[in-house]
Amino acid sequence: MAKATKKAAKKAPAAKKAPAGKASAKKAAARPAARKRKVLAATPAIAKAAAKSARRAARGARILKGPAVAAAPAARRPARPVLHGLWLSIPACKVGLALSMMGVDFDYRHVDLSSGAQKSAEFLARNRFGQVPVLEHEGHHVAQSNVILHYLADAYDQFLGRSAAEEIRVEEWLQWDQDRMSSLAMLRSMKRFPRYKQPDEVVAFVSGRAVQALDFLDHHLGTSKFVAGPRPTVADIAIFATVALADEAEVEIARWPNVRAWAERFLKLPGAMHPYAAMPREDRIGG
Ligand SMILES: N[C@@H](CCC(=O)N[C@@H](CS)C(=O)NCC(=O)O)C(=O)O
Fold first, then answer.
1. Is 106 among the domain residues?
2. C-alpha 143 to ligand 1 mean position (Å)
């Protein structure tokens, strides 16, 4: 990870001391465009979780504190992170979901992409890429969702695996997610948002890549409980955020039984919820 990450991880007092092996590692369609939008509801469990999470969010339910943060004396707790995002953005949802599952309270700044707020000088000073999400924490501005996930896993010592080998697997899958699952995310944008509409050949190409990614994931999950091994990690969080929104790409996840079973397992984890429910809809400071 970047120097900044290591520094923050060192500073994060809630973090347990890394085991010896781990410290060194730190250096270290889709039914082709399924014909109709009625194929939705990726799985009944996801649909149910979405409804439950939406009810919780509507009640303004607070996110539970995870054991690592709750156990630390208040004065030694790491500063409260600020997530700049948009609830409709899968990359931003990944971060909201990770914070929820880590039990970390966070401030939230809504970024209005439709007005171009992400290209304002103020935003670009935080994130040169001019995109959501960006996370502010202890003087760092961290961009790129999967880098943020790795940063948070380091800082809060959760969801990163228990050995150097596991951490390497996690990083591999985070990279794979950006490389391959992004096709499913892209397909979802093309289907959900009129401004991303594309010619049929483009949709077919992206859809084919999304199917290949899901085939690969399904095969892998036939022999692995979670994405990077026996325990859930940030790699599961990253991939789940896209899989849970497959219905918006008109992709029926039930076609991949191992992916479906994994998504259902994932939803039973503490703090797991539908990605939309993990995201505030408007600014939330100190709440
Ligand atoms: N690789 C980036 C992608 C982020 C991204 O594509 N964000 C979109 C929203 S989903 C965005 O901010 N788009 C606005 C723009 O590019 O102007 C990540 O994983 O964080």
1. no
2. 10
* Residue 185 belongs to some domain of the structure: yes
In a domain, 122, yes or no: no
Give me the pLDDT at residue 45, please: 66
**Does 56 have pLDDT greater than 90?**
no
For ligand 1, whether the C-beta of 127 sits within 6 Å is no
Domain extent for 190: 164-267
Taking CA atoms, 236 is separated from 21, 168, 181, 224, in Å, by 23, 14, 12, 12
C-alpha angle 240-242-244 in degrees, rounded to nearest 5: 65
Per-residue pLDDT tens over the stretch 232-245: 999 999 999 999 99
Instruction: Provide the CATH number for the domain around residue 171.
Output: 1.20.1050.10
pLDDT of residue 156: 96
Say if ligand 1 is within 6 A of residue 131 CB.
yes
Ligand 1 atom nearest to 116, measured from its CA: 17
Q: Does any ligand 1 atom lie closer than 6 A to the CB of residue 144? A: yes
**178-215 confidence digits (pLDDT tens):** 999 999 999 999 999 999 999 999 999 999 999 999 99
User: CA 80 to CA 65: how far, in whole Å?
Assistant: 12
- The closest residue, in CA terms, to atom 1 on ligand 1 is 144
Say how many domains are in the chain.
Answer: 1
In a domain, 97, yes or no: no
For residue 133, which atom of ligand 1 is closest to its CA? 20
pLDDT at residue 8, as a whole number: 42
pTM: 0.79
* Any atom of ligand 1 within 6 Å of the Cβ of 29: no
Residue nearest to atom 14 of ligand 1 (CA): 131
